[in-house]
Each structure stands twice: as C-alpha cells, then as structure tokens.
Amino acid sequence: xxxxxxxxxxxxxxxxxxxxxxVIQNEVxxxxxxxxxxxxxxxxxxxxVPMNVVAQRYGYSVHYEVMNDKVGEAFSTAAxxxxxxxxxxxxxxxxxxxxxxxxxxxxxxEVFPEVVLSDLAGVEVEKLSSEVTPAAxxxxxxxxxxxxxxxxxxxxxxxxxxxxxxxxxxEGKIDGEPFAGGQAQDFQFILGDGQMLKEFEEATIGMKxxxxxxFQLAFPADYxxxxxxxxxADFMVSVKKIEAAHLPEVDSALAKSLGIADAxxxxxxxxxxxxxxREVKFRLMARNKQAAMDALVSxxxxxxxxxxxxxxxxxxxxxxxxxxxxxGIKDADKAPIPEEVFRPQAERRVRLGLVVxxxxxxxxxxxxxxxxxxxxxxxAASYEKPADVVRxxxxxxxxxxxxxxxxxxxxxxxxxxxxxKITDKQVDFDELMGQN
Length: 436
Prior knowledge:
Number of helices: 12
Number of domains: 3
Number of strands: 13
Strand content: 15-25%
C-alpha cells in the first residue's frame, strides 16, 4: 500500500496512520490474559485473579502500552515503505473524526537532508608539517632532569636566586584587612617555576634566611580567586630556608633511572625523539583534520534537522553542567545555561556529522579492521605494556566505537586533502606543542 507523505516545511514531513480498533482491543485482551497468569493481588491465589479485576487494575496502563507499540510499529512500517530517513522522534497526535472502527493519527517528523557537496578541487587547505629538533630533545631532557632534581641547604648568608627552593612565611592584606588564602607558614616554592605571581617571586629573589620584606602585589583581573582579582595587596614575606637545586647529569645513570633499555645517553635521546615524534604526529593529525573538516563544511549545502540540533544542544548543556559540578559549583545541575550559547557549536557538529556521513557512504571511507588495529597499536606504543592497552581497547565495544569514529575521520581527512588544493606549511615545534 502506498504511503502518502506530506511536506510541511524544508525537512518536516507528515504521515497519517490508521489502526483498526479491533487490533488494539485484541492485543490489550491478549496482554491482560498473560498478565492474569502471574499477577498477585490480596485475597487471590497467584494466577487465579478474575479477568475483570485485572482489567480494572491494569487496563489503562496496558491499553497505553499497546497504543504506543502499535502506533510506533505503524510509523516505522510507513517510513520504511516510503524510504524515509527519519531524524529524531516523531510527534504523534490522534485525529478527531476517525472512520468507524479505526483510529487515525498524524505523525509529524523530520527527515535527514540531502547533502550537496561542491567539488573540493577548488578549495584551499593549509597542510601543516613539523619535525623534532635536537633543541626540542634538549628541552625535554631539561624537564626530565627538573623532575628528578634534589635540594641542599644553602649557607646562611646566601641570597635566594632563580632555581632555588625557598621556604617562607607570608601574610597579605587588602586595605589593611587579611583575606582568604593570603597567609601561610613554612610555604615552599621554587623560584622561577611560575608557581607564584611574578611580583612575589621578584620580591623573594635576593633575600637571605632570617630577612623579611614588605611589597605590593597587584592581582590580575582574571585571577582565579574572584575575591581578590584586580585588587592590590600589601604582603610581608619572611625567608626561613633556602635550598639550592641539583639537577642530575645527562649520563647513563639518568638513562637507567628512566628505564631506557641500553642505559646510554644515545638511547635516552633516541627514546625521547621517538616519543616526541609520536606526539607531533597526533597533533599534526588533529590540526590537519580540523582544516580538512572546515574545508568540507564550507563546500556543503544542506538543511539541518531541528531535532538533531536540539539533541546536540542538550548534550552540550549536560556536559557543561557536569563540568561545573566537577569544579565544585553548587547546584550545577540547575545552572541556567542559555541554549543560544551552544547553538553555533551544536549546528556545526550536526552539519559536520551529516556531511562526513555522506562522504563516507558515497566514497566507501568506512574504517577497515587493519586501520583500527594500526591506530590502537599507535595509541598503545607509548605505554610500558602495549599489549595490555590493546586488550583494554578490544575488550570494550564503546572504546572500539570511539576508535572507529577517529579512523573514519582520518579517512575523510585523507580524502579531502587528496582532492583539495594543498599549501604545505612548516610549523615550528614549539608552536605546535603550544610552548612559548
């Protein structure tokens, strides 16, 4: 039987569904009979409750379930018959004035759009590349050495300098009044590490054990402590101990302490280079993927299903509330978050998802098993026991689905970069890694 589909607006459609009343009634009676065999009621033995009593108690809820099931089945059958790709859930309302012996319903819903992709050959994409330099390896070695530094007391008359660990007492006041977090005793910090604000570090440099100093400190306007942000405090700091840092030498002992197999400096540098190259690879992949996706979206024409955008909006808001809760914000689950804040992001995600899905379908860019395995092997390579990490991924369907989605995105990226007009750009290692 042909299904009549009415177009309401852009992606919105309407189908009228009809159900024979006797089909509904028969199914209700059938379910009530099955229920009567197991239902328990005071005064009756199990399975011996009269049908009229069962119908009186459960008739409404069973009728509601049957209506939902039958209307849902009818909608699914009609949508399949009309070859419609339904987006979201239909809004179903009962029609008045149905023919004798029938119930009629209007189902209003959205369909997924037709995605029109322009030729990608005309779009320009900047493709980044980078390399791990000896200087980058040196800086990483310095970080590893700092992580393993030891400290020894300086002479009593030695002045504190950058790199030293200072133990101090301090007290801060704003307009003559102490403030929360403005006092501490036996507080340790390393000069030059950026743990303290610049003015605090500069005031401490050059001081000796037993000395005290007062100075002003201006808190930045974006300081995390909202009560003091943008205000100026008067501080007094007293130095109680100064310790000089000792960094381990770059030698076989350091290599051995870091678990390098051949415990040599060459082996240590080679291991650092391998790990940095892996990180560079993933960062380049992410940046180039973003450029490819931007290019793809720019060449696509499609209408967005409101239901899909709304669903994505709700997901983003839920994630935002979860983030607020994790930060300790009171009543985060009730925080008023306007949908419009996330609408552009939601619309972009839905648009990109639809365009990617269309490209995957039309050009067979699905993730192949060997690609999934290669990606998991890459992820596992940086761990001490890669085989355990591989098993961890393969042991969970959700984790595997996440990897599959990444591989599909990589396939789409490669396809776009293969079609578009590419401009190669060498990016500095520090810029790629987000260092200054």
